[in-house]
Amino acid sequence: MSRDPENGAVHDMDAHEHEAPQGTQEEGDKGEDAGDNPTFSLAGPGASNPASNAYVGDLYRQYNPQYGKEVDSPTWSLAQPLPHIVRPGMQHGALPEDRKEDKQAGQNGHGPGPDKPRSKDDSQGSKDGFFNTWSKFRHKIREPLAEWLGITIAMTIGLCATLSHYTSSGEAGSYTSQSLAWGFGFMAAIYVSGGVSGGHLNPAFSIALSVFRGFPARKCIIYIAAQLLGAITAGGIAYAIYHDAILEADAKNKTAQNAGLAAAALLTAPKSFVHPATAFFTEFLGSAILFGAIVALGDDTNAPPGAGMQAFILGILISVVVLALGYNTGGCFNCARDFGPRLVAVMAGWGGHLFRESHAWWIWGPWCADISGALFGALIYDMAIFTGGESPINYPRRRRKRAVQVRAVNLRKKLGMRRKKDEDIESSSAETCR
């Protein structure tokens, strides 16, 4: 606040920060992220940069002349983004061809501009932005590679923690520790792949995002293939690392490898006393809770977490769900988590009967239950809370039917099952709304 010396009036300099938004409540909510409305954060103001409000004494800089000065050299710190530099080998002049080209240009009386690439390789690479073959290839498959790498990391950590617990007969770890390993393994994987592919790391989640958030169906298929490949990779790595421990545990217990403790670690299956309906709805409920929370965390009109915190929260959530619901079925909640190690076990010689156990559990459990659970979780959240137009729940009735009919027509075209005369979509949709 400030006082006018001439008339003594008091002016509130920050009054605009507390004015009520004009228009509807929805319009007011739109400007909240832009700073038009006060932010009711439990973290307090300046939480994104706590050091910005630090007190600096009057004489502090006099006795600490280096404080606050900008650093001119790059810092390779694990606590902040790494610097982007041009390495000496990439700079012009590092190759003999560069120097030869400069010499020829000097003899001709004109040299290349300071901002233009001078070597032949550089000029070829600058046309399309790629300087080697792998860079061009990686650009095309970067998202699937991120999904593959992410789920490989997550499942390798989770499977190794579980194998450590089982093969050591509980000496190395516990059920709680392996649940935490699964949660924080996926947390690390989301940090690795989230900025490139989104870090789905679960076929059920990719499918649910396609249905309720408009994720492209064609890309969804590619993601699922990459996730399954990553799960197979993780299963192979975990089995290879713990192969000796598996053999030792089986020798002590005098059991076959495919019926030993390692089978319970690598694969998921309902306990012998658990009814099939109970097993199905255990997986269904866990997936519904997980994906319902995911769409809630991604809803910017609700209460999204701060920058960089979403993966951490999901890691904790996965650990809690595995702890709470994992006992009955082994805590799968991910189609790829069971399929990859199961296929690796079959390739390792455990027998093809693994795909027939518990009435083909790998189909109706990790696939059917988890996918339907993720869809149900998104459905409940959208029906109760979400107001965005990307969800089919919020479509107008006519547009909902039109979307279904368009998909049906496109599917018939792809399968070569076109009718002699397709019904008019627009007129059919209009009739539905009458």
Automatic annotation (TrEMBL):
SUPFAM superfamilies associated with the record: Aquaporin-like
Cellular compartments per GO CC: plasma membrane
Signal peptide: none
One Pfam entry name: MIP
Location(s) in or outside the cell: Membrane
GO MF terms held by the record: glycerol channel activity; water channel activity
Chief location: membrane
Region annotation Disordered: where it falls in the sequence: 1-54, 86-127
Keyword Plastid: no
Keyword Repeat: yes
Compositionally biased intervals (Basic and acidic residues): 1-20, 95-104, 113-125
Highest taxon, organism lineage: Eukaryota
TM region(s), chain numbering: 145-167, 179-199, 220-242, 277-297, 309-327
CDD domains named among the record's database cross-references: MIP
Keywords on record: Membrane, Repeat, Transmembrane, Transmembrane helix, Transport
Topology in the lipid bilayer: Multi-pass membrane protein
Family of the protein in this entry: Belongs to the MIP/aquaporin (TC 1.A.8) family.
Classification via NCBIfam families: MIP (TIGR00861)
Protein name: Major intrinsic protein
